[in-house]
Amino acid sequence: MPGTLEELSSSKAFGGNLIKYRFKSAALGGLDAKFNLFLPANAETSNVPVIFFLAGLTCTEDNGAQKGNFLGPAAKEGIAILFTDTSPRGAGIEGEDDDWEFGTGAGFYLDATNPKYALYYKMRTHIQFEIPQVLEISGLPIDVKRMSIFGHSMGGHGALCIYLASKSQQFRSASAFAPISNPINAPWGQKAFAGYLLTGLNEAKEQYDATELISRHSDPVHILIDYGTADQFYKAGQLLPENFLDAARKAGYDEAQVRVREQKGHDHSYYFVSTFAEDHVHFHAKFLKA
Amino acid sequence: MPGTLEELSSSKAFGGNLIKYRFKSAALGGLDAKFNLFLPANAETSNVPVIFFLAGLTCTEDNGAQKGNFLGPAAKEGIAILFTDTSPRGAGIEGEDDDWEFGTGAGFYLDATNPKYALYYKMRTHIQFEIPQVLEISGLPIDVKRMSIFGHSMGGHGALCIYLASKSQQFRSASAFAPISNPINAPWGQKAFAGYLLTGLNEAKEQYDATELISRHSDPVHILIDYGTADQFYKAGQLLPENFLDAARKAGYDEAQVRVREQKGHDHSYYFVSTFAEDHVHFHAKFLKA
């Protein structure tokens, strides 16, 4: 049955468990989808809040779980972390495995409208609606009324866009490590939008560009962003966090609502992510436990 | 020049830096060897102690650095961590890439005496003598008089054997996550010894079996071991930590000198390692800062 969770593995960690699940995803055209879920010890006695973690280009549901240093801090806070995949797997579309920045491992957290991809590449729907629904019907000890979202690089783009698209109501807070913050003005984003979307940048401006979205946003938000000055992709103009910050300030959001921090000397790797992981979990915990 | 360090990359992490080095290894027959070194912030002003981390089968110098959760705890303690590789790379010996538990990625931290492997497979010498020497001549801010050693699985075997072989003087303390503790009585060890060593188990008993070594040891020791009851390799009889514990007690070592902890429900993965990483770093810090 679609949405029925199959447990693939379970590893005890930090007093809780890291469990890998698989299910038939309607959003992804019936393909198998996987995610990792860290449940802290307190999930044995009550429903716990959850933070969704969205990984970057080339990653799977494993990278953040293994390298992100999130489990210890989440265990301390008594919060679950759900690690999603970055694209459909095995769609069999011609050319989808040819590039590392497009196709498999690079779904860009959007719903494709180009017919070539539209049947399978619906990562936005998968993450924003399908997984929360699956959690709700699964009987897992997750309180889907208390969710936040964060991500790394392409996953930071996904987290910010999904948060803002949901009018910051479905998710209580968003944060990002080195996010692709203004993809309509960056090579990775332009390539992805041209490939996945029928009208390319026009659709992207409406739905898939965090800088565009924040400039039109008016509801209160809770956003934290970190990026490193030694990040090769930042230096190459793929991330553009300053554009997001400028747009947020122009839209009237102050430091209390949108905080963008430059981290001196840090690069794009999970060594950077893991350094600030505890800080981000703590940021979300404030809103999830409020 | 042999032993000259070439910096391949550097990532800021937890206030310090994770640096990958390469050098021509005399011990490994002139092949390139790599290691990762985490230097905490205080290494900028003074020489710091170091813990060597030895990884398990199939791993490289990256696994422990990326997944072990050691950097944060090491930063807090002001201690360096050095992550070694698990075998020579590119020796070109017939069949060395055929199995995951022998050859490439599976050097077993011994000095091969079988002529087929002896020119390159000298991981014991590489780690016990060559890397400390390279550190000393490199000018890196490491105090080679204050070293400890730990490892995971095959790396736990390596850490315990090198520690005991050095009469627990070169290294101040040893610890291990799910170590192969009595390899002469386990399939992985028996296969490795039969392949790498001219006289197989005879040489292994002398030098490469932690249970044999502790049974003949009389100097004071500081050893901590954790293993999980849900570990598939423990259950398959590859690890045999009880044999090590029995031998240690028979040799007169009490709980204060040799502590072996059964961790309920934990498996063999880095989720297990990362859970107890801080505890192990703290254990070594006591002796490194004494």
Give the CATH H-level superfamily of chain A. Answer: Alpha/Beta hydrolase fold, catalytic domain
Order of helices and strands of chain A: EEEEHHEHHEHEHHHEHHEH
Q: How much is the average pLDDT of chain A?
A: 97
**Roughly what fraction of the amino acids of chain A lie in strands?**
15-25%
**If you compute it from the alpha carbons, what radius of gyration of chain A comes out, rounded to the nearest whole angstrom?**
17 Å
- Please identify the oligomeric state: homodimer
CATH architecture term of chain A: 3-Layer(aba) Sandwich
The tally of strands of chain A reads 9
Strand order of the largest sheet of chain A: 1-2-3-5-4-6-7-8-9
What would you note in describing this structure?
The structure is a homodimer of 290-residue chains. By secondary structure, the first copy, chain A, is of the alpha/beta class. The first copy, chain A, has a single domain (6-288), classed as Rossmann fold. Helix content of chain A is 35%, strand content 22%. Chain A has eleven helices and nine strands. Chain A has helices at residues 61-67, 71-77, 115-118, 123-138, 154-165, 187-196, 201-207, 210-215, 232-235, 241-250, 270-288, and strands spanning 6-13, 16-24, 32-39, 48-54, 80-84, 142-152, 174-177, 223-228, 258-263. A nine-stranded mixed beta sheet of chain A has the order 1-2-3-5-4-6-7-8-9, sandwiched between helices. In chain A, a hairpin with a 2-residue loop joins β1 and β2 (16-24). The longest helix of chain A has 19 residues, at 270-288. The mean pLDDT of chain A is 97. The A-B interface holds A 11-15, 18, 66-67, 69, 71-72, 228, 230, 263, 265-267, 269-272, 274-275, 278 and B 11-15, 18, 66-67, 69, 71-72, 228, 230, 263, 265-267, 269-272, 274-275, 278.
